[in-house]
């Protein structure tokens, strides 16, 4: 972003950005001119418009903007490789506070387990988790599968198995179906990955998939207007916005977890003052009754985790996923 200039010998662009901004922050007047009023703050959504990651950005940032005088947030959709493309773009950017990204877990930590990446998850500047979104198993209204028992029976008896869509290999959606397959021996599922939930839902409703695995907030609108049905959701308890949808446990599958956590991160080395202002702004918004009312209306299951706690939460299950990869590489799932 912006014109590039030659760097002093031995200095990386990231180090130069941090050093320059550190000098500016020594003066409050210079700091105010340098950030955030100097130019828009771009927030990368590493998926196509219309999915859960897109929703949290568009719903949350107007409230954050009010708490940062002079700021102007803009959203840039950069889909590709289950979020890897956009996250790499931000990870390798200058840490000046003008470029942030939406991250999704567990994908942020599972992608580097299965393939090389140009980012290291633990080095992002973690700002705030916004939602904790249970997974769901979805079918079109005319589907013959009226329950999880119907779905599991068909996956055992159809020679070709059942096709299902997710938001990518190693995503929470994909891992959820792999977990279901482990709990229901003899089932056969054929994975069809997509770049985001919007095109996947289009394929599902068009009859090109037997079912879809995607999060409850992503299917909420279709559930309320009758475009889709949800056979079960993966939370420990029923989501209050969809009280008629049983949990997987209630539906006969011995699972009590599975979903996506979505939040905001910056590139490594984000200066402490900028990082702190962003963390406090998100902390305030995620406790704001007006925002919480709007989030509930939109079907966003809010879970506020900020700063270092958010980093520890995201990285906490990495060892568990590495063990799963050794036992059953999900690339082969």
From TrEMBL:
InterPro entries cross-referenced by the UniProt entry: BUG, Bug_dom1
Pfam family, one: TctC
Family in the record: Belongs to the UPF0065 (bug) family.
Name of this chain's protein: Tripartite tricarboxylate transporter substrate binding protein
